[in-house]
């Protein structure tokens, strides 16, 4: 075999591996992927409405987020981490009492791709149980940490009657951005039906969410100036019986 033939053979054998890796990455990480299971990433586009969603809380900053939402008369959905609910249960209860929806964001924020099926199920179940115990509501929506889904995740979510919700638009507030940039990231892409991703906590506990809090008035006012109403996620998805 010539060197050229050998090299071509290596390239040919590598193509299926690279393709398979690419497919696997898309299936688990891509926000809009439906390959492993049904995933919602946008809502109805005929109602001039959007939904604000917050991940990784509750945290010390969640109450400031709630204050801002209250002043604006807007209701959101908080995808909460079970451990954080145990620590700050009064904040989680306040969110619920003020009309916001509560979703499941796992118990301790692992990436499910690196967890066994048993651990994945345990993460979802423990978060469900903690939220029910501390807040008095059993979530109907789930958002996996970092949006990463696996077959084991979907199996557990289906068992628990959890609807997987990703997002349409992100503020990228997990990066080191100021309030103006966070608001601009949201407003430049928000459309009717958008599910907007923001954070009221930090799973790594490295930074606060003060810039997100400061961005909220600009985000909400900017959406309304475009004729877009901020509504609960269940309303955007036309689910009447969401808990």
Question: Notable features of this structure?
Answer:
alpha/beta; TIM Barrel; globular; two-stranded parallel sheet; 6-stranded parallel β-sheet; 9 helices; disordered N terminus
Report on the structure:
- Helix 2 (62-72) runs parallel beside helix 8 (210-225), helix 5 runs parallel beside helix 6 (151-159) and helix 7 packs parallel to helix 8.
- 45% of the residues lie in helices and 12% in strands.
- It has two domains: 1-30; 49-236, Alpha-Beta Barrel (TIM Barrel), CATH 3.20.20.370.
- Strands 1, 2, 3, 6, 7 and 8 form a six-stranded parallel beta sheet that branches. A two-stranded parallel sheet has the order 4-5.
- Residues 3-20 have low confidence and may be disordered.
- The chain starts with a helix and ends in a 7-residue tail after the last helix.
- It is globular and about 45 Å long.
- It has helices spanning 3-29, 62-72, 82-87, 89-97, 117-135, 151-159, 179-187, 210-225, 233-236; strands at 49-57, 77-80, 101-104, 141-142, 163-164, 169-170, 195-199, 229-230.
- The protein is α/β, with parallel strands linked by helices and 243 residues long.
- Helix 2 links the parallel strand 1 (49-57) and strand 2 (77-80).
- The chain is built from nine helices and eight strands.
Shape estimate: globular
Question: Which structural category do the helix and sheet elements fall into?
Answer: alpha/beta
Measured between the Cα atoms of the first and last residue, the distance is 66 Å
Q: What is the percent of helical residues?
A: 40-55%
Radius of gyration: 20 Å
User: What is the CATH homologous superfamily assignment of the largest domain?
Assistant: Glycoside hydrolase/deacetylase
């Amino acid at each position: 075999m010539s060197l050229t033939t050998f090299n071509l053979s290596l390239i040919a054998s590598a193509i299926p591996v690279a393709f398979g890796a690419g497919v696997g990455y898309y299936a688990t990480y891509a926000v809009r992927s439906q390959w492993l299971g049904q995933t919602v990433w946008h809502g109805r586009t005929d109602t001039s409405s959007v939904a604000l969603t917050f991940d990784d809380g509750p945290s010390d900053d969640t109450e400031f987020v709630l204050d801002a939402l209250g002043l604006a008369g807007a209701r959101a959905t908080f995808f909460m981490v079970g451990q954080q609910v145990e620590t700050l249960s009064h904040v989680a209860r306040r969110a619920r009492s003020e009309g916001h929806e509560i979703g499941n964001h796992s118990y301790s924020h692992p990436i499910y791709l690196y967890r066994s099926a048993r651990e994945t199920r345990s993460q979802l179940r423990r978060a469900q149980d903690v939220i029910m115990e501390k807040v008095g509501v059993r979530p109907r929506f789930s958002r996996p940490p970092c949006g990463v889904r696996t077959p084991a995740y979907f199996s557990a979510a289906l068992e628990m009657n959890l609807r997987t919700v990703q997002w349409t638009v992100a503020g990228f507030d997990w990066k080191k951005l100021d309030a103006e940039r966070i608001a601009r990231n949201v407003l430049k892409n928000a459309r009717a039906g958008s599910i907007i991703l923001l954070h009221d906590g930090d799973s790594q506990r490295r930074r606060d969410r003060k810039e997100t809090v400061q961005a909220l008035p600009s985000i909400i006012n900017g959406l309304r100036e475009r004729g877009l109403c901020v509504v609960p996620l269940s309303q955007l998805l036309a689910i009447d019986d969401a808990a």
